[in-house]
Design goal:
By secondary structure, this protein is mainly alpha-helical. The protein is built from 16 helices and four strands.
Length: about 325
Amino acid sequence: MKWGQSSGTESFHQRPPGSEGFLPISAIVSLFYWLQTGIINNVHPSGFFILLAIIALSAFLKKAFCSWLCPVGTLSESLWMLGTKIFGKNLRLPRWLDYPLRSLKYLLMLFFVVSIGTMDVTVLKAFIYSPYNKVADIKMYFFFANISSFALYTIIVLAVLSILIKNFWCRYLCPYGALLGFFSMISPVKITRKAATCIDCELCTKACPSAIHVHTAARVWSDECTSCFQCVEACPVKNTLVMSNAQDGKEIPSWIFGVLVAAVFLAITGMAMLTGHWQNSISKEEYAKRIQHIDSPLYQHNRGQVAQYGPND
């Protein structure tokens, strides 16, 4: 960024492709474009493969991404743990308020998926190869580097709410989590409770960051479950609460589960690297040109609509 803003006088450092993981809208557009054409675009290919890896994780290992890999989830967890240390406990909203608030992330998810899913190939392609999308990661950097007062106060409010209420952002507002929750429903692995040895202490339910009533479930089907294993670790009776496969009922220890999470994620992103679909095709010279003009109307969007552009833009 410093190199681009300095017109090339500063030293140049290669852009990390993994930064595209913070461009979920572009990744979903790329996914629908791939589903309709079979083409992996070369603008933000790593973002596409990161999304594929996260969806695959959810389909096989429930919402493991949220509790094992997601940086926002890690921050959210740290904040509510801080709240526990400060206040001794976190707030739990009553059902009449919790349920409507939880619906917000599903409404956001439906809005994005339906809006993008109804685009035809021409519109999808126009967005992917637009000047705006080509610098979406750079604009994301500028959003935080030159953050507005409104955005800063919003983040502060969310942080404070996350200290008071467990995983406030994840539980109520994250559309990404809602999407992964949908795919997690088909996962073959789930937390399983053996009623014969359960002593009804309810420690599993108290330990669950997602407020799932684990102590009443034979198998935890909830789309809020992130496979964090906190309920399993809280259970005082050995082999009563386990993560298991639906087919054979075999227990999956947390360390093996962690290896599986890493293996799935690395296999898919590694395949992108090996097949040449990790680095994008935007040259150093093109970045230099675009960074210098990034504040022009060509690089803006209006309610999801990118500016009209020509072949030389």
